[in-house]
């Protein structure tokens, strides 16, 4: 039986046994899992990452982006999960599926190639002053900025967060 809605449950670990009609979300595992919305019973794993799925929790419902395409399953179900509602999408040809998979591989390759060239830590001597740094560029060398230096990054973030 096709599902028109999925409830959600936030869990630390994905349970060994999952129920039909429930989307289990583990932020610790960066994964959401549910049984296929078509009713076939197959488990569908959607990793949460910049190159896979994004999860939106609006305080009441969850959404996944992009669509869920179960091309490896016999049912080949294709749907969106938007604010807990299952929105059924049309079937895709094998050529369209392969094009999507190829695009996914290219996006992952580009993302991880750029991640290797991006430093993961601030350069020596850099200081973050959140109240002066736009969110889009939180890494900036402010070591020569006038005024007192913050006590530490956590204190700076706390000050920024509560302001």
Helix and strand sequence: EEEEEEEEHH
Give me the secondary-structure category: alpha+beta
User: What's the oligomerization state?
Assistant: single chain
What gyration radius follows from the Cα positions, in whole Å? Answer: 21 Å
Arithmetic mean of pLDDT? 80
Q: What low-confidence regions span 5 or more consecutive residues with pLDDT below 50?
A: 127-151
> Judging from the principal axes of the Cα atoms, what is the shape?
globular
**Percent in strands:** 15-25%
| Helical content band | 10-25%
Please describe the structure with a list of short key phrases separated by commas or semicolons.
163 residues; four-stranded mixed β-sheet; four-stranded antiparallel β-sheet; 2 helices
How would you characterize this protein structure?
The protein is of the alpha+beta class and 163 residues long. The chain folds into two domains: 7-92, no CATH class; 130-162, no CATH class. It is 21% helix and 25% strand. It is built from two helices and eight strands, in the order E-E-E-E-E-E-E-E-H-H. It has helices spanning 94-117, 153-162, and strands at residues 7-10, 22-26, 31-35, 43-47, 54-57, 62-69, 78-82, 85-88. The strands form two sheets. Strands 1-2-3-4 form a four-stranded mixed β-sheet, with no helix packed on it. It has a four-stranded antiparallel β-sheet with strand order 5-6-7-8, with no helix packed on it. The protein is globular, with a radius of gyration of 21 Å. The relative contact order is 0.10. Residues 127-151 have low confidence and may be disordered.
